[in-house]
Task: inverse folding
């Protein structure tokens, strides 16, 4: 049985080779159809592709050619625009370079002519010490700067002086008012009017009208010689002081103290009245001080604007000069 199995398996191999022999050699069976086709087909090699009838009259070919022509013309227009911009830039640069070269040649020629025209034998004594031709703008600029400095320094000082004068006037008025108030109050103090009589103006001064102790010392300095002279009619002040009546003497001291306080208050009120009457918005611009300050501010602003304009012009001129020197060095 084993021998038969082996023979069967070996027989399958040549059978398989015989069956698939045609496929292995890649041979096809040509079959001729019995019915002929209704429409004849031609291969590509049989068509006249570039014939005028097939090339010019084809609508699709015409559309392709038209689109190609439009796109090509558009590309050429863009290229021409770019080239025109580049030509313009190149022409401007060429003109600048040409002008620079012409200017340099002209400057060199002028320098050569000036150098040849100069005298070589020059003495030191012939050289002037200062030959300066200042421009009008430079002079005006410096004068404006000086005027601005003078006005900026002088007129604030003038305003300060005016303020000092006004303050002095206010202090003088306050002093007069305080002295008058102190004399008025001292006359109402017990026994002082009979003792001092008309000496109040000598006692009350600008140095002591506001101080209780200073007033008391001034009164005591005049009252002591009077009390020591032992007049026929002894003043009440002397009798109160000699008898050491503390209650009555305390009334005198309190009266002197009240006089000093009221005089101080009256002086402050007078000072405030003077200052308020001088520095008010209604009277400030109509006063000579306010008008002078306003005119000064306007003049300073005008001079400052003029100075800034001239300074700007001078800077532009110096910039051009530096460019000219740089061009010469190149």
Result:
């Amino acid at each position: 049985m084993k021998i038969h199995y082996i023979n069967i398996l070996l027989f399958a191999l040549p059978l398989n080779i015989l069956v698939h022999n045609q496929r292995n050699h890649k041979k096809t069976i040509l079959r001729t159809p019995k019915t002929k086709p209704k429409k004849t087909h031609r291969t590509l090699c049989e068509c006249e592709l570039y014939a005028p009838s097939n090339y010019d009259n084809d609508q699709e070919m015409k559309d392709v050619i038209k689109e190609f022509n439009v796109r090509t013309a558009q590309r050429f227009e863009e290229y021409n625009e770019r080239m025109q911009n580049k030509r313009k830039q190149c022409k401007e640069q060429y003109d600048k370079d040409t002008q620079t070269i012409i200017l340099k040649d002209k400057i060199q020629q002028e320098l050569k002519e000036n150098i040849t025209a100069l005298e070589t034998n020059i003495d030191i004594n012939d050289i002037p010490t200062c030959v300066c031709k200042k421009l009008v703008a430079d002079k005006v600029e410096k004068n404006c700067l000086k005027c601005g400095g003078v006005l900026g320094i002088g007129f604030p000082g003038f305003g300060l002086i005016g303020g000092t004068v006004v303050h002095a006037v206010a202090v003088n008025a306050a002093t007069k008012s305080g002295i008058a108030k102190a004399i008025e109050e001292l006359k109402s103090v017990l026994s002082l009017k009979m003792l001092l009589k008309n000496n109040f103006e000598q006692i009350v001064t600008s140095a002591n009208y506001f101080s209780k102790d200073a007033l008391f010392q001034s009164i005591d300095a005049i009252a002591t010689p009077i009390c020591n002279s032992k007049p026929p009619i002894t003043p009440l002040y002397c009798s109160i002081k000699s008898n050491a009546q503390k209650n009555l003497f305390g009334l005198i001291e309190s009266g002197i103290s009240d006089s000093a306080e009221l005089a101080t208050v009256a002086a402050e009120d007078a000072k405030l009245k003077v200052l308020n009457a001088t520095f008010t918005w209604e009277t400030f611009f109509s006063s000579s001080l306010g008008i002078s300050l306003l005119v000064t501010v306007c003049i300073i602003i005008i001079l400052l604007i003029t100075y800034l304009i001239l300074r700007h012009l001078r800077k532009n001129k110096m910039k051009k000069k530096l460019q000219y020197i740089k061009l010469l060095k190149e």
Notes: The chain has two domains: 53-115, 139-278+288-315. Residues 53-115 form one domain.
